[in-house]
C-alpha cells in the first residue's frame, strides 16, 4: 500500500477531519487498554530528572516556540509534560526519551547513538573529526559555526593554480542534517548520524531504511510523501522553526539545480544507513557513477549527461541546444544514456521528457 502524493495529503486530512479526530481518540483508548512494547523515545527516563535538561536549549525552545512561561516555572514544566517531553512519575517530573534527545545535557548517557559525527576531508587526504553530542536542538547552530569556519580550508593547493570548492550553502547542509537527526531510527544501536565534507561532495548518513510505506525509489525520485518516524522530534523542530513539517526536504532537493546551479543530490542505502549526497559541482557528481558506465561515453556524451545532471529533467530539444548537436545526434546520445540507465524516459511523442536516474 502506497501513500497518496503529498499535494493531496492536506486536502485528504481536511476532508476527513471529523473522522480522523474520532479515529485518534479510538487509537488512544486502544493504547491504554492494550499493553504495547515500550518505545524508548516516549518512555520516562526514571534515572533522570528535569535538572538533566540543558538550560540554554530550553531557553532557545521557549523563545522560538513563543512560550510566555519562565523555564523554571510550574507552567513551563506542565507544557513539557503535555507535549510528551517530560512525564509525571509519582510527584516527580522526569524527561522522556524525546526530551533527553532534544534538550538533555548529555543525551548519549541515555542514547549512545545520539548526536552527530562530522568529518572534514582535506584536499591532501588528511581528515579532521568533530563530534556534536549535546542537545539536538543546538546541533544546527553549533554545526553552522564549525562548517563556516572550515570552508576556507577546502582549497586544493596540489596544482599550479589553487582550486576552490564550490561552497554548498549551509541552509542546504542544515536541512540535510536536521532531516537525518529527526527521521533516523533510534532503535539501531551503535550507529550515529554522520556528516562527511570534502572538496567534491557532502555526505549525510542517517541510520534506518525509509519508514514504510515510503520506498527508496520514492526517496531517489524526491516524491516521498509526508511521514515522520519520530513525529514529536519533528514537531519540536517545526515549532522552533528549525524544520518544516510540510514538504520537508523533498521540494528543496528538487530545486537545487535551478536555485543554486548545483547537481541534483542523490539518495542511496547501504545498511544500516540511508545516505544523502550533495555535490559541489557537475564534475564532482561523476565520482559516484560506476566506471563501467562512464567508459561507454564519448566526451560529447559525457558533456550531455553533465547537462542533464544540472537540470534533472530535460527534453530532446533542451539537450540538442545545450551541447550544440543536431537532432539525430541528440537522439543517439539519449538512446545510449537510456540504455546505460543514467536517465529514464517519461511520456511519449512531443511531451517526452528525460529524467536523471
Task: Give an account of the 3D structure.
This protein has 357 residues and is of the alpha+beta class. It is built from 14 helices and 13 strands. The strands form 4 sheets. Strands 4-3-7-8-10-9 form a 6-stranded mixed β-sheet. A hairpin with a 2-residue loop joins strand 9 and strand 10 (273-279). The two termini are 24 Å apart. The model is unreliable at 33-38 (pLDDT under 50).
Write the layout of secondary structure elements.
Blueprint: H1 6-15, H2 17-33, H3 55-64, H4 74-83, E1 86-89, E2 92-95, H5 97-103, E3 116-121, E4 127-132, H6 136-150, E5 155-156, E6 163-164, H7 170-183, E7 193-197, E8 201-207, H8 216-220, H9 231-239, H10 250-260, E9 266-270, E10 273-279, H11 291-294, H12 299-311, E11 313-314, H13 316-323, H14 327-339, E12 343-346, E13 353-356
Helix pairs in contact: 6-7, 13-14
